[in-house]
Write a sequence for this structure.
């Protein structure tokens, strides 16, 4: 789960699989557990192409909350009261 930087944190404890975002603004809205079946799908002259089959559908998703007062929240929502930001006909 690495694409130059970590995208998700994945861990398991027994029968529970936990997938967490590394950023508080990442949301997982749906999670299905699927398996790739090489014996299914479209039949070609070389055999079957394979297809994904759903094992568990609509598993429980628990959403977190975005942080308040964090560095990313302040940089996204607040503006510093500098002369450039408070002047007449300012851009922001």
């Amino acid at each position: 789960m690495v694409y130059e930087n970590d995208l998700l944190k994945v861990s398991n404890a027994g029968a529970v699989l936990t997938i967490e975002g590394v950023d508080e603004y990442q949301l997982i809205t749906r999670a299905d557990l699927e398996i790739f079946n090489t014996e299914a799908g479209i039949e070609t002259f070389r055999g079957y192409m394979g297809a994904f089959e759903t094992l568990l559908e609509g598993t429980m998703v628990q959403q977190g909350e975005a942080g308040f007062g964090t560095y990313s929240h302040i940089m996204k929502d607040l503006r510093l009261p500098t002369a450039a930001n408070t002047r007449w006909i300012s851009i922001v």
